[in-house]
Design goal:
It is a single chain. It is built from 2 helices and no strands. The chain is mainly α. It has one domain. Helix 1 packs antiparallel against helix 2. The longest helix is centred in the last third of the chain and has 28 residues. It is globular.
């Protein structure tokens, strides 16, 4: 089961997978993918929720 949205678990998992595939900046690529999937505002809201929990 995938981690809950806004927890940061999905982002960390994707970053790890991209690093294994040889991405030069896996966090930036994961952020790009997230913005493409959820939109600018939606992705920002997920990040804010993650920071609020942390």
């Amino acid at each position: 089961m995938a981690p809950k949205l806004g927890s940061g678990g999905r982002f960390k998992k994707l970053t790890g997978q991209l690093a294994e595939k040889g991405a030069s900046d896996p966090a930036a690529l994961a952020a790009f993918i997230g913005r493409k999937k959820f939109g600018k505002g939606g992705f920002a809201a997920l990040g804010a929720a993650g920071r609020k929990k942390g």
